[in-house]
Each structure stands twice: as structure tokens, then as C-alpha cells.
Amino acid sequence: MIKKSKKIIVAGFVTTMITAYLFGSFAQADTSTNSSAKDKLEAYIKFTQILNVIESQYVDDINISTLIDKALKGLMSNLDAHSSFMDTSDYTALSVQTKGEFGGLGISIGMRDGALTVIAPLNGTPADKAGVKAKDIILKIDNTSTMGMSIDDSVKLMRGKPKTSLVLTIIRRNEPKPLKIKIVRDIIEIQSVYTKTIEDKILYIHVTSFDKKVVDGVKEAMQKHPKIDGIIMDLRNNPGGLLDQAVGLVDLFIKDGLIVSQKGNNPEENIEYFAHKKDSNTKTPMVVLVNGGSASASEIVSGALQDFNRSIIIGEKTFGKGSVQSVMAIDKNEALKLTIARYYLPSGRTIQAVGVTPDIEIHLGTIKVEEDPLVLKERDLKKHLESELIKIDLENGIKSETNTTAEDNNETNNTIITKTQLYNDAQLKSGVDILKALIITNKGRR
């Protein structure tokens, strides 16, 4: 065994010398870096020795190409949760995703404390309709445990043909035992910008994800409502998306300055993004809503507007996904998805693993309102008399049209947010109250 191992080591050394030469590590190493040429060569030797031992001694037949692929997958997954080695099937799946020709759940996921965690279900998607919530921990995908599973592998399991189903076993805070949620896959088509009005003077803009239509959608909404007194921007459960749309959205509300920067080990990845548009809305008071499902691009928007003192941020601390990934093709069939930089907000603070802390922390919930039962109001008396008149008419065989209040009619109106809906959303209600105070203050300055 010892003699055999020595032969393997010698073979490994020869292979390593060739590898070191090909990579230029030994001949052209920069001794100013963290690893010297000697350190790198020794590391290559150790790696090659182990590969050769496994290839010759492992109980099952395994070729060196398969070993290298496995080693690369392990290497990349141990760098961070978002880096990965993509073999032929993974790379093909990425191409399909980019084209949008896939069936999915409409769920954005990330790693938190080593657990596969839901960042947010996208509005109106199968996951959203099935009841998946932000911060849910995915324990199993069908019968496959997610322990030690990478994000890419879990996404691969959750995708599939439309109309096929799977079961997610999740752990949810305040639930005594794991929940099983059945979800039917579908083609994911998302409307990224929804708008409504509140009391005719506040524009509510809900951005569900950052696709290529966000900036135009928000701009169009503001053009349709030129006389609004304030803006509520809802970024809750927004998992992120395109960086240029996040930058463009912030640019609509500030005149100049650094919006976000990215910094990496390679100087070429050090990029700064500045505001530059002339027609920015810098006067209309604004509130942004965030929660634990707000990640990446939505954290850039909320954090930048907070740093510029352009908006009050309300809700719960955001997810904390502030890294930049780049897909680097190795050949036409394989690639690396590598974290190359981190995002930094205008103040210089990072988002990664920290998130954005709201100015005012408000938890999700409802607001209970109780009226004084001893106070009889004129409208109550009027309603009582009207109901008595309807009874008399019915007794006399006279049909009477049902009287409905404006609030009742508004419940089915998709263009406004009613008082009832406000009180069912404590974060939104608090945002509206704070925005009203900002509107009053803003008027006082004119």
C-alpha cells in the first residue's frame, strides 16, 4: 500500500507541475498577494495527490473528469450561498430561465444561517396563492431534504413542467409543527408595478419585483396622478431583480449624488452608479414600506432613499442580500456563477448579511378600532330610520333599492385602498399616518 501510494504521489506531483505551468501560478506568481508561489504550488500538489488517491483507491470506478466536477461544486458552494459551478444541465437550465420558458412556483429563496429560506413569494404566483410566506424555512422539497443543499440545486428541484405539483415542507415561526404546502407549477408571468390611491391624495405604488418595466411603470403612474400630495412605495416581499431598474427608480426621486456602488477584489468590478436625471421628483413627501422579504434591489432602493433623507422607511428589517454574481462561461456547456462584488449604499454601509433597518419599526398586523357604544351619532340614527322604512316598504310589497355607502362600493374598486383595507394592514396604516404628517410639514415650508 505504501509503495503504491508513493507511485501515486509521484504521478500527482508531475500532474501538478503541469497544472501550475498551465495556470502560470508558479512561473508568474505575484509574491505581494496573500498566497506566494510556493504556497500555491504546494496547494496544487496536495489537491492532485488526493484526486489520484481517490481515482485509484475508491471502492467504485470513477474517472478524473467526474472527480473534478464534484470538487468544483464543493469548492464553489463553500465560498458563499450564491456561487456555484454549473455543469451542462445547470447551464442549460439557466439559459431556459433567462428566456422565461419554464414552469415554476414564483418564489425567491436565499440562505439564512445555513437554512434554505423564503425571501418572498411573488405576488399572484402559485407559491403566493398556496400560502407560502416570507421567512418560511424550506425543510423538504417533496421527499428530498434541503439540509446542505445549494440554492441552485433547490431551484432545480422546484422548477418543472407547468401543471405538475410538488409539496414543500416548511417551518414557520409560531407554528407548533412543520407545514406541508402543495403547489402546482405554472408559467410565471409577473406584473411588477401596481398602483392605487388612498383618500384621493396619496399615490400607493407596489413594486413586486425589479424587472425591465419598473422605472417606466412608476414614471407612468406619477404622470397619471400629477396632483397627489404624497407617495407610499411598497417594497415588501420584493426579492429584487435588475440593478439598472433599482438605480433608475431611485433616480426618479433625487437630483444628484451616488446611488449605489459595488466593490470587489478585481478593480474592474468597482463601479459607481450616480443620479443624473433633470426631471426628478424631489419635493413630494414619501414613505417606503419594507420587511424581511425585501432583498437585493429593493434594499438598494430603500437604503439609498434613506441615506439621502428622501423617504421615511417603515416596516421590518430587510433580508440582507447585497452581493453581485457574474456568470462566467468556461466553455459552451459549463460556467461558473461567482460572487464578484458587494453593494454599498451612499453612506458607505453594506447590505450583505446586514440589511436595511427601517426608521420606524412596525410589525405586520391589524389595527382594531372600537367606537364608543354610548355615543349615538346622526348617521347611525339615519341608518336606523332607513332600515325601518325598508321594512315598511317590503311589508307593503314595494321594492326598495339597497342603499350602499361609498365605503361598500370601494371594497370592489381595484384602483383605491379603502379604510377597511388600511386597518387590516398596520404597516400601511402607519405609513399613511406618517406620510400625512410629512405632507403637513411640507406644506408649512412652502
- The radius of gyration over CA amounts to 29 Å
- Please mark out the parts with pLDDT under 50 across 5 or more consecutive residues, or reply none: 1-14, 16-32, 399-412
In CATH, the topology of the largest domain is named 2-enoyl-CoA Hydratase, Chain A, domain 1
CATH superfamily of the largest domain: 2-enoyl-CoA Hydratase, Chain A, domain 1
Mean pLDDT over the residues: 84
What is the tally of beta strands? 19
Considering DSSP H and I runs of 4 or more, what fraction of the residues is helical? 25-40%
Structural class, from helix and strand content? alpha+beta
Strand content: 15-25%
- Global outline: globular
Number of domains: 3
From the coordinates shown, what is the CATH architecture of the largest domain?
Alpha-Beta Complex
Continuous helix count: 14
CATH class of the largest domain: Alpha Beta
Molecular structure report:
With 446 residues, this protein is an alpha+beta fold. The protein folds into 3 domains: 61 residues, no CATH class; 100 residues, PDZ domain (Pdz3 Domain); 169 residues, 2-enoyl-CoA Hydratase, Chain A, domain 1 (Alpha-Beta Complex). Helices cover 37% and strands 22% of the residues. It contains 14 helices and 19 strands. A 6-stranded mixed β-sheet has the order 10-11-12-15-16-19, sandwiched between helices. Helix 1 crosses helix 3 and helix 9 runs parallel beside helix 10. The longest helix has 22 residues. The N terminus is likely disordered.
